[in-house]
Amino acid sequence: MTVSRDIIIIGSGIGGATLASSLAPTGAKILILERGPHLQHTPEARDDVAIFQKGFYQSDEEWLATDGERFLPGNYYYVGGNSKFYGAVMYRYRKQDFTPRPHPEGQSPGWPISYDDLAPWYDEAENLFSVRGALGQDPTDPPRARDFPFSAVPDEPAMAHIRQRLEKAGVTPASLPLAIDIKTWLAEGKTGWDAFPNTGKGKIDAQSGPLAQALKHPNVELWPNARVTRIETDDSGQTATSVLVTRDGREERLFAKHIAVAAGAVQTAALLLRSANTVHPAGLANSSDQVGRNFMNHNTSAMITMDPFLKNDCVYQKTLCFNDFYNNSPAGTGPLGNVQCLGRITGNILKAQVPILPAFLAKAIAGRAFGWFLTSEDLPNPQSRVMIRGNDIVVDWQRSNMQAHQQLIAQTKKVMKRAGFPIVAIRTFGRKTTSHQCGTARLGIDPHLSVVNPDCQSHDIANLWITDASVLPTSAAVNPALTIAALALKAGKAISQQLLANKP
């Protein structure tokens, strides 16, 4: 049986699902291919021991570091992609993130489009993901034409007290923009959502948000457990014609007029490289030699702050942030980054991170601990890259700008001390933390220096599109999910126009 569609979308995460929702109203025949299964509701979904200590949901896929070490990267393969486990933070990049600017250890090159170009798509993406937030709290917020779709997720009493402490400490706490229906989430289980899988509708992820909208249309179809191994072109190499898919132990060839890749920054790069042919010997869409290069992964640390006299009785905790050091340090050395709450750290989660802690001690510490996530920009570097070696994915992450991150840690420690936390502990994450991976198929105007144009269309192959974090020219220092969605919506408009132009 020959399977042919107008559009095949590879990956059902934020980029793929959002693109599908954008294209569904056109009536075009759309097939979404997802390598993983549907995430089933089981008792483990809200079990912090199963998730954090036993790795119940973790893939057994290993990647290879350039030093030869194999490691489990922490990627998830389910319908909805990594967003099934994400912290649901839906930040817009700050306006300054789109312009070139110096950092303590290098230069951010900026984007070929401006914040104003992307702002209407941010509006649409926030509606699609039902984002909750508050205007007028964060001085770094970029200008917007409309308010958040819903009011901010409320602080729990302990976090309302922390907000007051931070204000007295001299920073400007703000409500995180979140894709969470808090009443529904808590009705499904009394836990936080950060790193917990979404098996219901409380967290608006790629599946419960845009994919559910897309699948309401009869012209949209989803195939789970369908792993794409290769993209093929015609003899000229100028048109992508089909994909090879392994499903139920069989290999199938599926044809489409347009192919969109949204498998994640590492897997998308690997697929394009593996799809090399005689016309594209270095991999598809890679005449610029930029596929797999400029891999960025945010410099991140977890911080725990404690006041022995302050109990943390939060259930979810993740409602606060501050960006006082986002655009500059107090010393004027340049941008440092974002500080936001982690989800509630339980004793079992803490023990998973520090296994030598006895369970009773981990529980006692967690009862007084407030967790924070510190993020600094990782600058693009062509030598930081994803490669393939036989069947292996090789990741050579050459992290940059760590001086800025160390300054962010130092400034945040000072804030927390002033806020009444005498105990501050920090842990900086390494290459196994790949939740914000991006940059391997960068967006740009010059086809010699980039992989796709500002509509996420391949410079080399006109009917090939990339709509995930691969295309981000810079990592900024905030969560990338909303920016990925905004770019996918922008790409959807461009594809829709082509479909209309080619209608008989």
UniProtKB/TrEMBL annotation:
Keyword Protein transport attached: no
Cofactor: FAD
Keywords carried by this UniProt record: FAD, Flavoprotein, Oxidoreductase, Plasmid
Pfam families: GMC_oxred_C, GMC_oxred_N, NAD_binding_8
InterPro entries referenced in this protein's UniProt entry, alphabetically: FAD/NAD-bd_sf, GMC_OxRdtase_N, GMC_OxRtase_C, P2Ox-like
Domain of life assignment: Bacteria
Gene3D superfamilies tied to this protein: FAD/NAD(P)-binding domain
Glucose-methanol-choline oxidoreductase C-terminal domain mapped to chain residues: 425-488
Domain Glucose-methanol-choline oxidoreductase N-terminal as annotated: residue spans: 78-299
PANTHER family: PYRANOSE 2-OXIDASE (PTHR42784)
Family from the record: Belongs to the GMC oxidoreductase family.
Protein name, as recorded: GMC family oxidoreductase
The organism of origin for this protein: Thalassospira marina
